[in-house]
Amino acid sequence: MFSRPSLSFRTKIFIVLALVVFISITTVLLVLQETTKNRVKENIRSRFESTIFAFRQLQELRTQFALDEINSLTMSNAQFRTILSTASIGTEDFGFGLATDHNEILKDANLRLNSLLPFISIYQKGDVFLVTNAQGELLFSKEDPKELGQDLSGLPFFRRIFEEREAVTIWNSRLNNVEGIKIFPPGVKESIYQIVAKPVAFGEEIHGIVIWGSRIDKKTLESIKEISSVDIILYSKAGINASTFSPQKEEELSKQFEAVTGKNTDDNLVEELSLGKEQFLAMKSSILPDVPAGKGGFIVLKSLTEELSFLKKLQVTLLLVGGLILLIAIGLSFFLAEGVTKPVKTLAVAARKIGEGELDTRVNIQTGDELQELGGAFNDMTKGLKEREFIKSTFERYVSKAVASEIIKNPELVRLGGSKKKLTVMFSDIGGFTTLSETLTPEEVVKHLNEYFEGMSSAILEFNGTINQFQGDAIVAFWGAPVPQENHAALACLAALRCRDFLKTLQERWIEQGIPARTFRFGINTGQVIVGNIGSSSRFEYTVIGDEVNLASRLEGANKIYGTQILISENTYRLAKEDIAARELDIIRVVGKTYPVKVYELVSLKSDLDDRNSAILEKFQTGINLYRERKWNEAREFFEKILELNPDDTASQEYLKRCNEYENLPPPPNWDGVYELRSK
Asked: Which residues contact 614 (CB under 8 A, 6 or more apart)?
């Protein structure tokens, strides 16, 4: 026995390329055939719809022409109105018998209309022109001028005239056989007419009816075919009335007439049918939307065989080209193996090094083809991996992992340069830490600061904040950039409350270590700032600058006056008030600002507000309202009640002090309640 040799790499490439080319050509042919056929069908359907639209537009234009002309005849021809009035009123019975002989009145109206109407435009342009009196008795017929006195009031559309003041329908010349009414003279070839009827009225009273009709014939159909390039068949229950087909095709269609028109299918549905050796697409439609196709409908047709004739030539061409490509591919496959194997091995070795963390690995493939491009792409990938690793390791130090991941996906968020955005900025500080650091060794200062920064950073990053910088014992953070956050104000407040919880634990731990109690202050403000990578291309910092940033810093310092821990601006409060409980403290003007700012103390989450703090917030709000109204004694009562609930409430103590001062030395008349801060 002997083992069968395995296929060589060249043979495998040959087989694969041959199969790929064969399958590709076959697939292209099948897809091309199906796609082309579908597109041709869609194109034909579009032309069908355009043809139907054009056909109906033509009928609408005829309808509007008829209505306008009837209106013009009625309004401008007094003789015509007089004839109809006489023929209508003269036939009424007022209880004294007929005023004149009925037949004589109708004959007189007929004679006068015969002498008047032939010179009227609408009469000349119509194939059907009937005039009746108000009772529906025929006074005049263009098709048969001698017909007189027939009662047309039994026609279905006649009743609609009195209800809708106009009627549009389809008549067939077979009407005189179907309805028993002689409108068309005997021997007229069966035809389909578009009929427009309108009453002649004076105010609300109808004195007669004008019925105008236009024959839809082969000439009409051919004029539409010239535009749309599709064939049109006009039919009724009796069969085909007119068409743009040749007599031979019309005869073939007649054999399938019942099958095509008798199907219980909706209008505007495309169907396929065979006429001889040709395949056609067809769509049937009624002439008018509200008129059954049985009275008069039409079919639009287009030869699918003719439209697809070019496809067979294209298929033959593609087969020849595909065969040539297959032969060339077979010849080239034997020369590709060596050129592919070596670069692939090089890439494989480099990929293993990347997997081991050697991100400086590069490849040098000079084949002048896609493999060289692949080598370049591989080098770009390793460069990108190294840059992303740098961004990740850098940004994760001062943004959350989720934000860092978003930056990695969208590096344009942190390009060099700045933009103006509405953000929320937070400043935090340790009160008196500079003095404290003088009593500690450098190692102890660094240890306690790192402990402080670790806990604060965790709280800020937990709520997707961006840590801007550490300034001594102070922290600057912001929300809303580099990744946009709709609820940036609420996130900043939640982070501050989480920091406060951490600082309470930290304070207890420091006291146990012999470090005196510290105060921790926060200032939060929301507004338009400049944010971005500011600096040079070699050294820059992602930061925020602007007046609103400075205001956050001033609010942090203002905590000293009110004995508070977290002060937020009115802009921040408005955006976050659904989530937080806050106490309106004051309206202040900070150093360096001309406009006052309303400030609030962030108390807790709204869901965590207890009854005691809720009572303090309510009484304090009443107190400052009275204070701003210069009602010093009444305001003082509320601040004293707050101190009974919380004797350490420095804000109430501050307002008691102001009330006493203003009671002795009232502020000027233009006092607006704004408190001026004298220091930063």
From this structure: 581
Question: What pLDDT score does 172 carry?
Answer: 73
Architecture category of domain 78-216 in CATH: 2-Layer Sandwich (3.30)
Cβ pair 475, 465 in contact under 8 A: no
DSSP state letter for 204: T
> pLDDT value at position 97?
44
Q: In this structure, is the dihedral angle defined by the CA atoms of residues 624, 630, 631 and 632, taken in order, positive or negative?
A: positive
- Using DSSP bridges, classify how beta strands 580-589 and 466-471 pair: parallel, antiparallel or unpaired: unpaired
| Residue range(s) in the chain whose domain bears CATH number 3.30.70.1230 | 396-408+417-609
Residue 422's closest CA among 262, 626, 575? 575
Q: Cα–chain-centroid distance for residue 584?
A: 42
What are the distances in angstroms from CA 464 to CA 11, 54, 96, 422?
57, 62, 100, 16
Element (H, E) at 452: helix 442-462
- CB < 8 Å & 24+ apart, contacts of 41-46: 41/270, 41/281, 41/304, 43/307, 44/230, 44/270, 44/281, 44/302, 44/304, 44/307, 45/270, 45/281, 45/283
Distance CA 417, CA 542 (A): 9
**pLDDT above 60 (res 394):** no
**Any idea how long the chain is?**
680
Q: Which CATH architecture has domain 396-408+417-609?
A: 2-Layer Sandwich (3.30)
* Token pair recorded at residue 368: 């002048």
**Alpha helices for 262-358 (secondary structure H):** 304-307, 309-355
Tokens 């310092």 belong to 557
Report the phi/psi class of residue 145: left, alpha or beta, with left for phi > 0 and alpha for psi in -120 to 50.
alpha
What are the strands, taking DSSP E only, across 34-190?
128-133, 138-141, 167-172
Tokens of 291: 């008129």
Q: What is the pLDDT of residue 98?
A: 46
pLDDT in tens, 474-501: 999 999 988 899 999 999 999 999 999 9
Q: Is the CB of residue 212 less than 8 Å from the CB of residue 167? A: no
Task: Tell me which DSSP letter residue 153 carries.
Answer: T
pTM > 0.70: yes or no:
no
Closest CA to 624 of 593, 586, 598, 567: 586
